[in-house]
Amino acid sequence: MQEDKDLVHEFVENGGLSCLIKVGSDADQNYQNYILRAIGQVMLYVDGMYGVMRHNETIQWLYSLTASKFRLVQKTALKLLLVFVEYVETNCLLLVQAVGAVDNNRGAALWSNVMNLLRDHDSNSGDSELLIYAMTLVNKVLNGIPELDTYYDQIDALEEQGMATIIQK
């Protein structure tokens, strides 16, 4: 993909993202890392980023990987989510939709994956980079939400899970 940008367009248009997600969902951490790198390469191109924006399952999968037991998978997923929300502000709402889909499907509170990362910072072996990515993602998403009802729904979910306590630490 680095050498042929037309490949990215064809990859996205022919269901490549769905294929990656399907393979990545059942893969071990090594394959997940390879797939995350591939998604990162796809996102570098306008066609690729627009493909990801139209394919909420990719964003859902990236968010679900923030709950991985493997630190590198978590960190890479958070980095890609940051790239996604920084691309255009409207992507914040697409991430909110993805978070809602994943967490509602699991019967969990909104943003529970990220909150678990932040809450378990003592067991994160001092990985401050992971915590910075997680907090930056939350802040950027909240900052990019244009409608008050959605904003306060997210804030309420974070506060109910102890965000105030986390911030004090």
TrEMBL record:
Alphabetically ordered keywords of this record: Actin-binding
One protein family per Pfam: FH3_FHOD1-3
Domain called GBD/FH3: residue spans: 1-169
GO biological process, one term: cortical actin cytoskeleton organization
Keyword presence, Flavoprotein: no
Keyword Ribonucleoprotein part of the UniProt annotation: no
Gene Ontology cellular component terms for the protein in this record: cytoplasm; cytoskeleton
InterPro entries: ARM-like, ARM-type_fold, FH3_FHOD1-3-like, GBD/FH3_dom
Sample GO molecular function, one term: actin filament binding
Designated name of the protein: FH1/FH2 domain-containing protein 3
Organism from which the protein derives: Orchesella cincta (Springtail)
